[in-house]
Specification:
It is a single chain. With 120 residues, this protein is mainly alpha-helical. The chain has 6 helices and 2 strands. Strands 1-2 form a two-stranded parallel sheet. It is elongated.
């Protein structure tokens, strides 16, 4: 990977809150398929270091910067929380039509459904 690829990879990691899978790096336009295949054996992810989002308490500004949260998803999350209060599981978010199955699978490692409030 060249210098032009390193900073976008780091910035994306920071926006996500960490990588849970090496394949997430391939989501970046600066990483070609060929380069991704070359670096894949050298990549490892520590899911214990992922920065979690307290989905039931996070402010909209905190949610909107996450690459996996679309504007539509953000509106659904905020509106539902105002009406119903929140969720206990990712499955509840799917059942409430907040997330599709694919969206849920993608964002699940970043969500925390606990009762803790987010810290700025």
């Amino acid at each position: 990977i060249g210098e032009k690829s390193v900073m976008p990879i780091i910035r994306y990691r920071e926006l996500l809150g960490g990588y849970y899978s090496p394949t997430q790096i391939s989501e970046l336009e600066v990483v070609t398929t060929e380069n991704f295949r070359k670096i894949l054996p050298q990549i490892w992810c520590d899911s214990a270091k992922i920065k979690k989002i307290f989905i039931n308490f996070a402010r909209p500004k905190e949610l909107e910067v996450h690459p996996y949260i679309s504007n539509l998803m953000l509106r659904r999350i905020v509106n539902y929380r105002e009406l119903k209060g929140g969720w206990s599981t990712i499955e509840e978010m799917i059942d409430c039509n907040i997330l599709s199955q694919d969206e849920a699978q993608r964002i699940a490692p970043y969500l925390d459904f606990g009762t803790q409030t987010s810290i700025e």
